[in-house]
Fold this sequence. Notes:
alpha+beta; 36% helix; 3 helices; CATH 2.40.50; 7 strands
Amino acid sequence: MFIRTLLATLIAALALTGAHAAACPPPPPGPPQEVGESDESHAARVAAFRAEQDAQHAAWLHARQQRMWDEADSVIIARIVRVSADRVDYWGDTQRVSLRPLRTIKGRRYSNRFELRYTDATSCGPMPAFDAIQGQVGDEFVIFIQGGRPSQRTVHQTAALTAITDTRIVEAISAD
């Protein structure tokens, strides 16, 4: 009976803690050093493994940009005009940013200022994961909007101008 209780407790603990661990797993470890493999050879394999992981992440980011462009009603370039202190429960001190639209590169034109802030937190960090919330005054971002004027509710993603890889977005930014 004691073993069953212990086993049930262990399974319950793993189920409860496993949900958080799986929510934001660490990057996979590199391949282990094989028996007889030199340190240099192993370092080269680990570097190749990391490069492949980086390439997969870049491809995922690129695909996300393409999807955001396709789904957005409007896409604007906006500049941060103010940064102020904020706080998120269970995370701590953060910041909120006030942005001013500069240009519309897709859809309807907007000129009203709007604010973005973190509204929640997970084991991976504060949410939503908008690049712009981490910016400073003067930084410019591409803002993907769906469902009306730019606001916390209608902004679906943000990306620094330097992070744009989709050629359609690059061309829209370059067009004047």
